[in-house]
Specification:
This protein has ten helices and 16 strands. By secondary structure, the protein is of the alpha/beta class.
């Protein structure tokens, strides 16, 4: 353990389901013998964090709760049994249930199991890498699960959001053609000019989204795979209609109370696959971070003081965020 650790810190705390989140001073947690103590510098804001505020999932939410699960910072102490992580190392806390069933990274200091934290190279900017710790790893894993190969086409639903903006870049880096599906001119501009999408389908103005997505593929039969990172249910009902025969639909987003639905006849005759994909393991994490280190992934993000987190949730609820927000825990 390192001496002179603070007793108090600032954090964003949910006292009741539905929020709001409050900026308040709380005690600093104490790491156990197999844990590390990380001074969180930045934490990405994920839609999962809003689900935690609203209690959307069929999982009991810890209350009061410090949310957040995309934290990046510096190791300032470690338990007596920890040997593989050094004080001064840069590390990420990414576990999905951090910030849901246990306190997460919307605080200045957080603890994590030494076996589970992600080592971050010191040359990598902590604010830029924070969103990769959940969103990047999650969509990279989803692309692997889809089975698409270089030269094939993937449709990304919710392409202009936090997960989608990274999914577009990982797909391009993996040699795929990307059809971005989202709404609005701002997200179209971002997807086409910054994220490397081959085409954009605006679901808010399309008269027939199924035909538009299929028409965006070279042979008109639809994409080889669909990645669903949307935050509402309707896209989960549409995807099997435009994915090509023998194609794969991968569900990643977790809209509250949503159901997958597909016509049985067309799904069977077309030999279509529907599957879920859930975050990633250590190997996926290493691979996803390697793409980032090589400069192939550039998360479009904006930084805001942690005390202003509620503003981000409000914009998220209204669907007004293009890319990702990252909170600075010092503000």
């Amino acid at each position: 353990m390192a001496p002179n650790l603070p007793e108090k810190q600032w954090a964003m705390v949910i006292e009741k389901t539905g929020g709001p989140v409050e900026y308040k001073e709380i005690p600093v947690p104490k790491p156990g013998p197999d844990e590390v103590f990380v001074n969180i510098k930045y934490s990405g804001v994920c839609h999962t964090d809003l689900h935690a505020v609203n209690g959307d999932w069929p999982i009991a939410t810890k209350l009061p709760l410090v949310g957040g699960h995309e934290g990046a910072g510096v190791v300032v102490a470690r338990g007596d049994l920890v040997t593989e992580v050094e004080i001064g190392d840069h590390a990420g806390i990414k576990a999905l249930l951090s910030g849901y069933t246990v306190d997460g990274t919307f605080q200045q200091y957080a603890i994590g199991k030494a076996a589970h934290v992600t080592r971050i190279p010191k040359e990598v900017p902590l604010d830029a890498v924070a969103p990769v710790l959940c969103a990047g790893i999650t969509v990279y894993k989803g692309l692997k699960e889809s089975g698409v190969r270089p030269g094939e086409t993937v449709a990304i639903v919710g392409a202009g959001g936090g997960l989608g903006s990274l999914a577009c870049q990982y797909a391009k880096a993996m040699g795929l053609q990307v059809i971005a599906i989202d709404a609005g001119d701002e997200k179209k501009k971002m997807c086409m000019e910054q994220l490397g999408a081959s085409s954009f389908c605006d679901f808010s103005s399309s008269e027939n989204l199924v035909k538009d997505v299929q028409a965006a593929t070279e042979d008109g039969t639809g994409p080889h795979a669909v990645l669903l990172v949307a935050v509402n249910e309707k896209p989960f009902q549409q995807a099997t209609k435009y994915v090509r025969p023998r194609g794969t639909v991968v569900a990643i987003g977790l809209p509250a109370g949503a159901f997958l639905k597909a016509p049985v006849f067309e799904t069977v005759i077309g030999m279509k696959t529907i599957k879920g994909s859930y975050v990633g393991n250590r190997k996926d994490t290493t691979e996803a971070l390697d793409f980032f280190k090589r400069g192939l992934i550039n998360s479009p993000f904006k930084t805001i003081g942690m005390s202003e987190l509620q503003k981000v949730y409000d914009m998220m609820q209204q669907g007004k965020i293009a890319g990702r927000y990252v909170v600075d825990t010092s503000k």
